[in-house]
Amino acid sequence: MRRINRALSGLLVAVAFTACSDVLNVQNLNNPDRLRVLGRPTDVEALISGSFATIFNGTFGTDGVGPSARTMSWENASNLANWGLGPRSAIPRPFLDNTRGNPYQGENSYDFSALSKAERSSADGINRFTLGGVTLGNAPQNARAKAFGWFCLGLAEGYLSLTFDSSTAVDPYADLAVIPDLSGYNTVNVAALAALDSAVTWATTAGTSSTSFPLPSGWINGNAMSQAQFIQLAKSFKAYFRANVARTPADRAAVNWTAVQADAAAGITADIQVTTGTGWVIAENQWWLYQQWGQLNQMIGGMADSTGAYDAWLASPNKVQILIQTADKRFPSGNTRAAQIANSPAVPAGASPGGKPYFRNRSTSDPDAAPWSSYYDWYRMLAWYQASSVGPFPWFTKAQNDLLQAEAYLNLPSPNIAAAAALIDNTRVPNGLPKLAGVVTTATQAVPGGNACVPRVPQAPGYTTAACGNIMEAMKWEYRLETMYVSYISQFYSGRGWGDLPNGTPIQWPVPYGEMDTRRHPFYNMGGVGNPGGAVGVGHYGY
User: Fold this and answer.
1) Is 139 exposed, middle or buried (0-12, 13-18, 19+ CB in 10 A)?
2) Preceding omega of 249 cis (within 30 degrees of 0)
3) pLDDT, tens digit, 9 for 90 and up, residues 496-525
4) What is the DSSP track for 379-399?
5) Could you give all domains of the chain from N- to C-terminal order, each with its CATH number?
């Protein structure tokens, strides 16, 4: 039997039942139709409010595209076959296999199914309030529900547009029984931005009465957001989706950076953390197996080194682990491995959203994951994990929003170097690196620090030596360290637009074959060297 995508199965059942009821001309109360199921106001509100959990669990949840996207984008390193970690990060890069029975068919479809389900649920809820006459009893509460519905619709469509080459753009005002056609990612991205605009409009309409804002804390678990905070979050996501839909450096250069800067400037002013626990899960169990699953990739981590060890590693055909000595406080200090192990506390110290250092020099045996393996494990959120993975977890941080705005300043028609430097310094300076503001005044100038500068970037044409990066590389360094593991595959999205991914790396996922089967369309693969949907040419770091 052909597998039906979960996001569409309810629609297909509804269509089939409507046809039967037309023939029988009776009302079947034992198997009610979709409109009567969504007839009670509380059920419609629950459908809308539950959509966010579906999005959160569908992106941070288990068995999706996230683990392999991290290894493909240099965020971590692993040679294991699980989730496609090792196979998909091999060089030369292979294509994403989307044929029936492929070894990662579950991972390929997990995110698509969850996001499509949330997209449909949000649209159905908006439809019932707008066209179905459903009311919660007062206008402010109705407006709040619509605002949250549009917000979740925008999130679902935004993530779909960033991850897959095609998906659906659902119209909440359309017939609920209609199954939307697939649209290209740019079309879906435009729909996502429009949905977030509608969320802002309805949040403004809702006002700040006792029945509108703050949001119920369980909707974005642990966040009883005020009207202003909710609007700020929608603005941050507009900036994020607009910038990261780009698949290539040319696409990213063509982004409307003026709009990105404006939305990011109006965005969040504090970290947004989701309280995890029952019903709110993150695919994090394997993180804490460290060296086998998610060690720091030495290609990226080595950019912090101040001793020349990274240059020697770049030049050597024998890629072995190196000791990274750096002023960056997110790494353990010490000029020997024993000293760094001693300076890697059992649990990183510090307040939420995680302590320092972000990385430990492990005291256990090292893996064989050459050439990318390192001595270093990310363990910033270990205290959260040791609390049974229950508690606040960073989901969208102020640092990420600041750095997105900094990138926008660097890419404006008239770049604002000073404004970008100040935003980058928000995380750079507290972590022990010399400030950029007032020092770096051009886009090509090397960052300060001399031989101890961070980051040191591989140099063309041979990529066997490194030199101090410019302000753009400084922004990328902060973005990588501050979003690592706490943002859904952000480094995959940005890396393809920055031109940092190795030649042939898939720059998006194909629509899962099960969805294509259901729609009676041919399925297809994506990426690999010389194939459609793959990064073209050598990336900025020589691969």
Assistant:
1) middle
2) no
3) 999 999 999 999 999 999 999 999 999 999
4) -TTHHHHHTTT-EEEEEE-HH
5) 6-276 (1.25.40.390), 285-388 (no CATH), 398-485 (no CATH)
